[in-house]
Amino acid sequence: MTKPTTLVATWGDGLFAVTGDGLTQEIAGQPVRGLAPDGHGGALAIVGPHSLRRRGPSGEWKTIAASEFELSCCVAVRDAIYVGTDDARMLRLSLGGGVLDPLDGFDNVAGREAWFAGFAIVNGQRLGPPLGIRSVAANSNGTVLFANVHVGGIPRSLDGGRTWQPTMDIHSDVHEVRAHQTDPDIVAAAAAVGLCISRDAGATWTIEREGLHASHCYAVAFSGDDIIFSAAADPFAAEGRIYRRPLKPDGCLVPVEGGMPPWTEGKVDTGCIAANGSSIAVADRVGNLYVSDDFGRAWSCRSSRLTTPSGVLIC
Hints:
By secondary structure, this protein is mostly beta strands. Helices cover about 0% and strands about 45% of the residues. It starts with 5 loop residues before the first strand and ends with a strand.
């Protein structure tokens, strides 16, 4: 059986494909982020500030839309692609349309006026990303959309993006939202307050942090019967840790072992945990890529020379 390809996007060195043969650069010299499945076995990515591209079966990338707005993340849902921006807009690309149309309903989310940028003051300098959409997701049957606003909680839409409603306190400071691949009711979010889990498609959330060394969670993915996620002491921590939690309601948060180092070099940020079938990939801040082919029981380091990863995807 052919092993899946792991794509690693970086903030400055483009995008790499990791296969059994090693590391191949597919996009060079541009920042890449927002990796997502295209719904047809391929991949989507944000290349540079304004370009949405799709990966073909031979590894070639083609621009399918461009925008005046700075794009940040995307998700494919049925015959549409939803794209978030760095200034907290939501855009929609219809099948065959070629144009990213703003969704005005997202501008009218209740409580939007209280959203704020996730900056921190370090040594007198204001650091951190602008107010924007950090991740987007859709449940497994495509009926519910989720947008992770930083910092603005997780608005959701039940009508294809026409209207949006807030679902959690914006001060939870969410860094990534993911929906389960097959159960339309299960959603997880990595937030500064801990691991957030919904079992009713985002209508309500529970927050878990018992067992964590620090509550700041950044990346999250579903693998088999587990949630895999990362935590660090703060956005600029020198080390982080990878945890798992069983999907069953009474599960506990425990560190991932089996060859995964006890501490990652820097935090594992938004988008930097990916899962597909039994395969999982994790990229830390300094460019170490850890992979597992057995639902995270055993791990190996596949690369240590990726410069500032911004996301991973297994396809």
